[in-house]
Amino acid sequence: MSHTDVHAVAARLAAVRASVERSAVAAGRDPASVTLVAVSKTHPPEAIRAAWEAGQRDFGESYAQEFAAKRAALADLAGLRWHFIGALQSNKAKLVVPGTSLVHAVDRASVVEALGRRAREAGVVQDVLVEVNVGAESTKAGLAPEALGAALEGFSRVEGIRLAGLMCIPPPAGDRDDRRAPFRRLRELREANVARHGSLRLLSMGMSDDYADAIAEGATHVRVGTAIFGERPRKPAAE
Ligand SMILES: *Cc1c(COP(=O)(O)O)cnc(C)c1O
Question: From the CA atom positions of the chain, what is the Rg in Å?
Fold first, then answer.
């Protein structure tokens, strides 16, 4: 049973969209330079359909099996772009490639190689973002900032993928003095590595509670779930 209020989606989406635009303008940025990814994980396909009817095109999913099922159920929605934003296991790369415009959270050679293999088989080039653990939390996925340079070097040798940018999930802001610090860190890491890896263009950072801060630091993709779809039903049992 899902409790997602599908009828509320269009209005919430409009509010988030307006707020994303305001944040971009306040930062002196072109609103078109920020892509709003509507994070629909654990919400039913009807919620995605409602957002699509309201003009939303970019959607983020986190669980490979759930993603594959929804993608099949929504194959009729023209122009929809899927983003895979979750932790991916190598053996599930085939559920994600081809058909995903951006894979947001890779941090391991085994996964990059699996994605590359799958992309070559399908005759596509898969854009990926490398996840950085900007808060250096022991429980979080992502590469330590110090390890990023060497990892990019290794990943860049894998054919079939393009290193399109960086992604982070910072610790909750709480009462941290500088809410923007982790986002600034990711921006600086991109700037430090783009000379060597010219395709490193994108910054996926910011969620429902902190996307304004992320946009102020240059986010090109914000991943917003709760503010659009409401509280999440539980993670699907099959994953
Ligand atoms: C679930 C999720 C989001 C969305 O989080 P909200 O707080 O609901 O906006 C964003 N990014 C990632 C990686 C997620 O897993």
Answer: 17
Question: What's the pLDDT score for residue 73?
Answer: 97
What pLDDT score was predicted for residue 177? 81
pTM listed for this prediction: 0.96
Query: Does the beta carbon of 228 lie inside 6 Å of ligand 1?
Result: no
Residue 133 alpha carbon to ligand 1 centre in Å = 15
User: Is any atom of ligand 1 closer than 6 Å to the C-beta of 223?
Assistant: yes
Tokens of 209: 């509670």
**If you count them, how many residues does the chain have?**
239
Cα-based torsion angle of the residue sequence 149, 193, 208, 27 in order, rounded to the nearest 10 degrees: 160
CA of 123 to the centre of ligand 1 (A): 30
pLDDT digits (tens, 9 = 90+) for 54-93: 999 999 999 999 999 999 999 999 999 999 999 999 999 9
Please, are residues 129 and 202 in contact by the beta-carbon 8 Å criterion? yes
Ligand 1 contact, 41 CB (< 6 A):
yes
For residue 91, the tally of other CB atoms under 10 A from its CB is 11
Q: What is the DSSP letter of 39?
A: E
Rounded to whole angstroms, what are the CA distances from 4 to 35, 48, 93?
23, 11, 28
